[in-house]
Amino acid sequence: MKRALLSSLKQWKESENRKPLILKGVRQCGKTYLLKEFGAACYDDVAYFNFEGDKALGERFERNLDVTRIVTELGVIRKKAIMPERTLIIFDEIQFCNPALTSLKYFYENAPEYHIVCAGSLLGIALSKPLSFPVGKVDFLTLRPMNFHEFLLANGEELLCEHLKGLSPNEKAPDMFVSRLEDYLRTYYITGGMPEAVDTWVKTKDIDRLEIVQQQILNSYELDFAKHAPSKDFPKLSAVWRSVPLQLSKENSKFIFSQVKKGWRAKDLEDALEWLISAGIVYKVTKIEKPYVPLSAYADESYFKLYLSDVGLLRKMAGLSAGFILQKNDAFREFKGAMTENYFLEEWLHGRDAKVFYWKSGNIAEVDFIVQHDVDIIPVEVKSERNDKAKSLAEYRKKYSPKISVKTSMNNVSMGDVRHIPLYLLWQAEKYLED
Hints:
By secondary structure, the chain is of the alpha/beta class. The chain has two domains: 6-142, P-loop containing nucleotide triphosphate hydrolases (Rossmann fold), CATH 3.40.50; 148-433, no CATH class. 45% of the residues lie in helices and 17% in strands. Strand 3, helix 5 and strand 4 form a beta-alpha-beta unit. Helix 10 runs antiparallel to helix 11. The longest helix has 22 residues, at 207-228.
């Protein structure tokens, strides 16, 4: 599986200010696989250690945090010495050992010649004991589920991707490729971007086997809640998470706490929600009434929508048959808009750590997303097919006269006052947003 983040890992390796690296990301988005691939490609040796269920490994960090001793004992465990600069040390499932998290500070301060990368459940790291986290002593990268570009590469479409990259912003995608890209996109709505799900689909084209994998991933999330959250909070985490597809399916998709479970209020669930956000499992998109910088200053934190980190898992959780999507069934119409919005959000956040908002003006108009690109505040209207009428966007533009506005749908490229970016080319959005 070719992952775009590999280039960022190579830059980290060459950085003069390199610190131990924590690769953030939801469970099963491919963190361990990517780090091992990185080690094999860029180092003479890889020393891999997994803290889950390995008491003896954890004990190496509990006595004290003398990094010289720790490195020596890790070498004994693997029966091979760890060499500065030449060996990549991988700490997997690091959330199971709080002293190991703390040790990253001392590796940075006392032994920067050792290259250390860490992976683990983001929920576990988010809930780690406050004194264990080495604030300011580590670098971060975020790995998200595979985006549509990586999905195309997994399906052997390297030449198609290179051709699309070579198009100028004013060129339309060639008609001979459009239907092919649309078919791939609908398939991506089914599989999502979890690497195991994509790999299963590419190898088997079997919907039943794909859905078994997706259900296993969903089950692993629930197990993660149970492992790392206090027992009193587990039901709340699970309930908020499971309610996302239902709330997105409503005409007004604002998240309403009382609809999670009867009798529960915002104050009962806010901590659970923040944990899910910190873990990257859900994305929060908050309403703003004025699109001014900084956007967060104009956000109403009590009024927001929640999306999932993966559109394929959203489909599976919603109980939506793959046939509805592939056959363009009208019964899919109600949920299609929510899935397409979820897809846009994933594509926009891929490779970015950014907050995304939406705009609502009373009951008159609502623009799906407000994003910031460099110094520009950009309104984005998302349409699932070719109907690109956007009254709310017109209202927004009339009121605020943005320099750049975007519509994304199945329509082809058009560069005018409003830039049309096809849904299947959102992975190249940067190109279409330049002057």
